[in-house]
Specification:
By secondary structure, this protein is of the alpha+beta class. It contains five helices and 14 strands. The strands form four sheets. Strands 4-3-14-9-10 form a five-stranded mixed beta sheet.
Amino acid sequence: MSNKLPPLEEIEIDSAEYKKSNRRSFVKAGFFGLMGVLGVGWIFKMENQRELPWLLRQVNNMSDSFWKANFSKDARVAEATPDGKPFRVNGDAGLEETVDEKKWRLKVEDPELPEALLLTIEQIRALPSTEMKFEFKCIEGWSQNVQCRGVQVSEFMKAFDVGQRSQTSLSGVVKTPYEYAALESINGGYYVSMDAKSLLHSQTLLCYEINGQPLTVENGAPLRLMTAVKYGVKNIKQLAHIKFSDSPPADYWAERGYQDELMF
């Protein structure tokens, strides 16, 4: 077995080739890294559409279209048994620290009403109640099984004859829902847009009780929206104003660039 070393010239040549290879790899890595940085920078410097760069807004719109095409008002979210823990308090946008239930009124506006309805919590609690158990999902990534009681929005609309326009047809006058409703908190500091399909879903309630207990102020007393077909950001607390229309109303988080539908 020979221990003879290769000529010095060969070692120097190999070393030079190794350095060239390293330089080429370094230049390539630097080039593609720079392109990546510039690409990301380009995305975020593109023309904004409602506070999101154009490309991201298009992806967002595609997601909206998918959910609109695949969401059925007859599909129900699976029932989930509550875990026995107090319902998590999350988010305080638009909340008042104290609420006087005796003075509180739910203001309901409908284009066909000569003036707005002003309803007490007793009038709402007097309607037939519905209980539902589901997995409440927050857009932040957490979830909690919850049991809530209230009146279905669809039943509320029937009881007070609101949220539907009158149209004349060959068979007579028919009622069809307005496309949207704007919902606002007591002080107007938080507001959401709800589409008719979600609002009329059987798992969408005007809620006044959670896990067998009346709502706390932090969780939306005296009345809040609870829906199994939307993320938590749509489940507005301390609800005090509902306005029906055919035009998309303002939405607190949509104005900040989030997905309009926020359903799953």
